[in-house]
Amino acid sequence: MIVRFFHQMGSPRYFYGVAGKLIPWFMVSFLITLVLGLYYGLFVAPPDYQQGESYRIMYIHVPAAWMSMFIYVVMAVSGLISLVWRIKMTEVVVISSATVGASFTFLALATGSLWGKPMWGSWWVWDARLTSELLLLFLYLGIIALHSAIEDKRVAARAVSILALVGVVNIPIIHYSVEWWNTLHQPASITKFGKPSMDMSMLVPLLTMAISFKLYYGAVVLMRARAEIVERERNARWVQELVQEEAK
Amino acid sequence: MNPIRKKRLTLIGLMVAGIGVATWLALNAFDENLMFFFSPSEIAEGKAPTGHPFRVGGLVATDSVARKSDGLTTSFTVTDNAESVTVEYTGILPDLFREGQGIVAMGQLNQSGVFVASEVLAKHDENYMPPEVAESLKTAHDEAVGANQNQVSVQ
Q1: Per-residue pLDDT band at B146 (split at 50, 70, 90)
Q2: pLDDT in tens, A47-78
Q3: Residue B130 forms contact with A (CB below 8 Å)
Q4: CB B12 to CB A80 under 8 A?
Q5: Domain segments of chain A as ranges
Q6: Chain A residues with CB-CB distance to B91 below 8 A
Q7: If you measure CA to CA, which chain A residue comes closest to B17?
Q8: What is the pLDDT of residues A15-36, one digit of tens each?
Q9: Which of A174, A180, B73, B85 qualifies as a cystine partner to A132, CB 3.0-4.6 A?
Q10: DSSP count for chain B of H helices, then E strands
Q11: What is the ipTM of this complex?
């Protein structure tokens, strides 16, 4: 049954329909978790013993930074599938993820910079973590630029997939930069193994925000994918019928 | 899997592995340059550059912060619990600067071995907790230390 589901999702027409039904669910759950996460993060969670209230920017910064890497991995995996199996829908996923990924990367860099000035004493330092994250932003921008430079959508998707796979080497570098080298950026507070070095009262709103940002990505990628499908399949009969229906 | 797909997958695998190895080699070669700062032990070993400015990172030693008479120059000791370096800095220190806090200072060593800093950045650690928790942790730590000392004195 799962195999059949994936087969059907590979068809643009089927994907378009399913995505249309899923978007409102993603949007509503995103808004609920966003309101909960922001309220508990900004008003309920206690101030930090050292940073006072300023640490609250992490409720945006940390989930945004996680998303910047998560989305890139999604793009690289979809890129791999596109290159090997030539599935149209994974090509669509690669390019639909790029702008939202770039936005999250920018958000992580900007909020980090705002926090860095009062805490570290500097807006920006060229340490390994910050530099590799900046490189990630350039990779996203490069992918967007490359995609819009090539007219043929399928050729563009292939080029972009290769670039995404080339850049994926940066992801472990970003993640481990704080362990491999001396950096000004602090090491991870939350690791897969081991107890998080953050109090529960602060951790729960942070994880809520992380879920919220994932749901936002889900909603946006589906919306953009739908738009991309309609553009790619504009000559297909089902799209023309859809347009005529909308026009009525 | 049909042969064409298998070939494509192998090619991509080789490409990613190749880039990975190349990056690893490049990063290894530039290891020194990627270090944001040197620890006092590394300076003692003579690993830090002598001709041009570099950064030193470590903890501000307890009871080492002193203000000079001009009111702006601060002198303190940066330690990694093995070696230590005396740092002098004229200017405004960041919010998180305090004794026991990690800092990174940019500057140069002068003839007398004092590190004259032109910039001091505070390094934050990965621990986040409310003030009450920090307080109770400190109390628990002090009690444990006290208990140990009692045991020592009993023995």
Answers
A1: low
A2: 888 888 888 999 999 999 999 999 999 999 99
A3: yes
A4: yes
A5: 14-190+206-247
A6: none
A7: A169
A8: 999 999 999 999 999 999 999 9
A9: A174
A10: 4, 6
A11: 0.75
Do you know the residue count of chain A?
248
All residues at 6 or more sequence positions from B35 whose CB lies less than 8 Å from its CB, including other chains: A181, A182
Give strand pairing partners of B122.
B103
Mean pLDDT throughout A128-156?
95
**pLDDT for the residue numbered B149:** 54
Q: How far apart are CA B12 and CA B68, in angstroms?
A: 62
Q: Residue A13: how many CA atoms within 13 Å on its side-chain side?
A: 9
Tokens of B21: 């190895």
Q: What is the DSSP letter of A40?
A: I
From chain B residues 2-31, the ones with a CB under 8 A of any chain A CB are 5, 8-9, 12, 15-16, 19-20, 23, 27, 31
What secondary structure, in 3-state letters, does chain B show? CCHHHHHHHHHHHHHHHHHHHHHHHHHHHCHHHHCCCECHHHHHCCCCCCCCCEEEEEEECCCCCEECCCCCEEEEEEECCCCEEEEEEECCCCCCCCCCCEEEEEEEECCCCCEEEEEEEEECCCCECCHHHHHHHHHHHHHHHHHHHHHHHHC
Rg (CA), chain B: 24
Residue A13, classed as helix, strand or coil, is helix
Q: Are A198 and B129 a contacting pair at CB < 8 A?
A: yes
Phi, psi of B47 (to 5 degrees): -80, -25
